[in-house]
Write a structure and sequence with these properties.
Layout lengths: L1 E5 L3 H12 L3 E5 L3 H8 L10 H10 L3 E4 L2 H5 L4 E4 L14 H12 L5 E5 L7 H12 L6 E5 L9 H6 L4 E4 L3 H11 L6 E4 L1 H32 L3 H9 L20 H14 L5 H25 L6 E5 L14 H11 L3 E5 L4 H7 L3 E3 L3 H5 L4 E4 L4 H4 L3 H7 L4 E4 L6 H6 L3 E3 L5
Parallel strand pairs: 1-2, 1-4, 2-3, 4-5, 5-6, 7-8, 9-10, 9-12, 10-11, 12-13, 13-14
Helix pairs in contact: 1-3, 5-6, 9-11, 9-12, 12-13
The protein binds uridine-5'-diphosphate-glucuronic acid.
The site of uridine-5'-diphosphate-glucuronic acid (UGA) has 21 residues, from helix 9.
């Protein structure tokens, strides 16, 4: 099948590469000329394990193309995916201006029947919104259908998530469109759920908000464990064995960051308020998450008192491992908080250094974790990269001026850290 994917961010680029790998002809479009030029040179605008190889293979085999023009990309495509950014406005509302601009562009070049699939995370009602925009701007009276097909991939393992999704949700208004999308996804042999457009749109937000709720719930339990002398890791393990609860997303820490959960929970809150629903449950989830960093920095401050002039080493900048993404990363919140208190900051991340150098000012970028530790009064673990789990703790300690280790992701064992000479602080345990 010929497919056009508009937007080459995480969702668009990975989806395009995977569809091409399944044997479809895929035209990826982005209005960012620099990105398209990079992709045409075989360079990736984002770091995602396995993506570069997959893109290169499909470009070489003549199944994957990159354009800056929507007209060119959609010309011979039967299905057009919209996968552009849907950021938050200050009030939490989702900004649909990029979706609207793409819908208008599609409308202006619509000259035969197309299936237009919204893959961008966008609130319930966006399917109708896209339909209205296209109807307003289309120049010819051709038919089209609008589908909602939310994406559930996670950064860092996006290709595997796209190839082996837990489920594929297709929100359609008629049977004929459902069949076309089923055909496109059939080679994956994964569970498919056909719904109406609105239900598909809600499924995406409900899923992300539920996962965010799990994280805030375990962080609430972590606070309790710290006071009660219990161990949150053991509590999460004990809960996770219950198949109704499940073990995933019960890792206590600094809270959820990234480009999805923070913005999607706020967007769902906004939608619920618009429908005059009681939002207290979700408000609590957001509040618990927002309290994670101030609480953590408060503990650092208690030990280093005063923070002013103290050297703090930060290990991990990406919002989670296996990505170079810094959007809503806890590292930025922590570093800015510490800088305000006049700490001296040294940082290292295995892949996010280049991105970080454009965002972070007044910090020292180091070559590795040991360099970060050099002369530091405290070391802070912010991202649970595997590389940090394997560090030589004795060597790390020797580099430091003071022995304080704040583990925001519970990657070390307390006894082990103490044996190496650290005074160790982690989340949800004494
Ligand atoms: C999330 C969802 O997991 C995807 O299913 C969804 O498609 C995506 O959002 C999206 O809407 O596009 P992602 O943001 O890439 O994916 O990352 P996650 O692995 O879900 O992690 C989100 C945040 O939660 C990270 O900051 C992570 O450190 C934190 N987290 C995760 C915890 O604090 N504890 C956990 O147990 C799990």
């Amino acid at each position: 099948m010929n497919v056009c994917v508009i937007g080459t961010g995480y969702v668009g680029l990975v989806t395009g590469a995977v569809f091409a790998d399944l044997g479809n002809e895929v035209y990826c479009v982005d209005n960012d000329k620099r990105k398209i030029e990079m992709l045409n040179r075989g360079e990736m605008p984002i770091y995602e394990p396995g993506l570069k190889e997959m893109v290169r293979r499909n470009v070489e085999d003549g199944r994957l193309f990159f354009f800056t023009s929507v007209a060119k990309g959609m010309k011979s495509a039967k299905v057009i995916f919209i996968a552009v950014g849907t950021p938050s406005r200050a009030n939490g509302e989702t900004d649909l201006s990029a979706v609207a601009a793409v819908a208008k562009d599609i409308a202006l070049h619509l000259d035969d029947y197309k299936i237009i699939v919204n893959k961008s995370t966008a609130p319930v009602g966006t399917g109708n919104f896209v339909r209205n925009v296209i109807e307003k701007y289309q120049r010819t009276n051709v038919e089209f259908d609008v589908v909602s097909n939310p994406e559930f991939l996670k950064e860092g393992c996006a290709i595997a998530d796209c190839l082996y999704p837990d489920r594929i949700v297709i929100g359609v208004s008629n049977h004929h469109v459902a069949m076309a999308l089923l055909e496109l996804y059939a080679p994956l042999e994964r569970p498919m759920l056909i719904t109406d457009v609105e239900s598909a749109e809600v499924i995406k937000y409900a899923s992300n908000a539920f996962l965010a709720t799990k994280i805030s719930f375990i962080n609430f339990i972590a606070n309790l464990c710290e006071k009660a002398g219990a161990d949150v890791s053991l509590v999460a393990k004990g809960m996770g064995y219950d198949s109704r609860i499940g073990k995933d997303f019960l890792q206590a820490g600094l809270g959820y960051g990234g480009s999805c959960f923070p913005k999607d929970t706020l967007s769902l809150l906004h939608t619920a308020r618009n429908f005059r629903e009681d939002t207290s449950l979700l408000e609590a989830v957001v509040k618990i998450n927002q309290e994670r960093v101030p609480k953590f920095v408060g503990r650092i401050e208690q030990k280093l008192n005063p923070i002013k002039g103290k050297v703090v080493g930060v290990l991990g900048l990406a919002f989670k491992p296996n990505t170079d993404d810094l959007r809503d990363a806890k590292s930025l919140e922590i570093i800015n908080n510490l800088l305000k208190k006049k700490a001296i900051i040294r940082v290292y991340d295995p892949v996010a250094m280049e991105n970080a150098s454009t965002i972070l000012k007044n910090v020292t970028f180091c070559k590795n974790a040991y360099e970060v530790a050099h002369g530091a009064d405290a070391l802070v673990i912010v991202t649970d990269w595997n590389e940090f789990k394997l560090l030589n703790l004795e060597k790390l300690r020797q580099e430091m001026r003071k022995p304080y280790l704040f583990d925001g992701r519970n990657i070390y064992n307390k006894e082990r850290a103490e044996r190496a000479g650290f005074e160790y602080f982690c989340i949800g345990k004494r």
